[in-house]
Amino acid sequence: MLVSEIASPAAVPSRRHWLGLAVLLCGSFVTVLDAMIVQIAIPSIARGLHAGGAALELLIAGYAIGYGVLLITGGRLGDTYGRKRVFLIGMAAFTVASVLCGVAPNAIALVAARVVQGITASLVLPQVLASIRVGFNGDERRRAFGIMGLVIGIAAASGQLIGGLLIGSDLWGLGWRLVFLVNLPIGIAAVALGLALLDESRVPSATRLDLHGVLLSALGLGFLLAVFIGLRPLGIGAAAIFTALAVPVLALFVTHESRFEQTGHAPLLSIRLFKVPFFVTGALLAFLVYAGMAPYYFSFAVFLQFGTGRTPLEAAYVLTPISAIFAVVSLVAPRLTHVHGRKVLQWGGWFYLAACIVLAAQLFTGAERPSVLALMPTLLAIGAAQGFILTPLITAILGMLPETHAGMAAGVLATMQQLGVAFGVAIVGIILFGLHEAGGVLSPEAATIGFARAVLMECTVVSATALLLRRFSR
Question: Is the pTM higher than 0.85?
Answer without folding.
Answer: no
